[in-house]
UniProtKB/TrEMBL annotation:
The keyword Mitochondrion does not apply. Keywords: DNA-binding, Transcription, Transcription regulation. Residues 151-255 form the HTH araC/xylS-type domain. It comes from the Bacteria. Pfam families: DUF6597, HTH_18. It comes from Amycolatopsis rhabdoformis. InterPro entries: AraC_XylS_family_regulators, DUF6597, Homeodomain-like_sf, HTH_AraC. This is Helix-turn-helix domain-containing protein. Coiled coil: none annotated. Gene3D superfamilies: Homeodomain-like (1.10.10.60). PROSITE patterns: HTH_ARAC_FAMILY_2.
Length: 273
């Protein structure tokens, strides 16, 4: 399989809300089904080839462009031999400002990008008509910047989410609530209302994502990965991987890792934003 990737940071004004843009092109893809793993991001994907065929999440189907919310199970994607498109990583607390809906409304499901209305309806066709990644990234800057307002998110929630990300899910929820001056119950209510996940669920996803980054970076000693990512032991890591990825770590390493090593996914999202 031949593949290439192009990554770029969004316009500076968008960086509190958008982590990065990724353009991808792959030929002769042999893996029939790709597991879209849980992560800290709400994802916007636009295919420049055949529609994306999702399964296993509400709203899934065959879509040219889609937005996928935070999830705690794998999103299964049936793959074509040739794939080309764009993948955008959105901070869940920026989704309300960028898309006009909350991340909670998207949680555990995918939505046709055309259903967002306005400039989103024509986005797949616009991106398809352009000759290169840079011109496509410029269109993403333009569309995402329309009406974006970072002030819509309470500062306490922003700070709690920042600390949870920075700790890679290791900070205790009671500590987190105390740090921002909210009760644990209120913090949980606000998290669920805005992100669609409780703080403990979000922490679970962040630990899992950290483990995945370590594997992509070449650390394949599962016992070491487990300790570094904050799991009790290798058995705990393996159980969580089966729950969140739908397979064991070894199966994922054998089936998926060879196709993902060069996509920039090993980069720490917080440091690249």
């Amino acid at each position: 399989m031949s593949h290439s990737w192009a990554t770029r940071l969004p316009h500076p004004a968008l960086r509190p809300l958008v982590t990065r843009y990724v353009g991808y092109a792959q030929d002769d893809v042999t893996l029939p089904v790709h597991r879209g793993l849980p992560s800290r991001h709400v994802t916007l994907i636009v295919s420049l080839e055949q529609p994306i065929r999702f399964a296993g999440l509400p709203g899934a189907g065959s879509l040219q462009g889609l937005v996928g919310g935070l999830h705690t199970s794998p999103a299964l994607i049936t793959q074509d031999r040739v794939q080309r498109g764009l993948h955008v990583e959105l901070d869940p607390l920026g989704v309300r400002a960028l898309l006009g809906v909350t991340a909670a409304e998207l949680s555990g499901r995918v939505v046709d990008v055309a259903d967002l209305g306005g400039a989103w309806r024509s986005l797949p066709a616009r991106l398809h008509s352009l000759p290169d990644w840079e011109s496509r990234f410029a269109v993403l800057d333009e569309v995402l910047a329309g009406g974006a307002d970072v002030s819509r998110v309470p500062s306490e929630l922003n700070e709690a989410w920042r600390q949870l990300r920075r700790s890679r899910g290791s900070v205790r929820v009671s500590t987190l609530a105390s740090e921002v001056g909210w009760s644990r119950r209120h913090l949980g209510e606000r998290f669920r209302a805005e992100l669609g996940l409780a703080p403990k669920q979000a922490a679970r996803v962040l630990r899992f994502e950290h483990a995945g980054r370590l594997l992509r970076a070449g650390c394949l000693d599962l016992a070491s990965v487990a300790v570094t990512a904050g799991y009790y032991d290798q058995a705990h890591l393996s159980n969580e991987w089966r729950a969140l990825a739908g397979c064991s770590p070894r199966t994922w390493i054998a089936e998926e890792l060879p196709f993902l090593q060069d996509d920039g996914s090993g980069a720490e999202p917080d440091s690249s934003a």
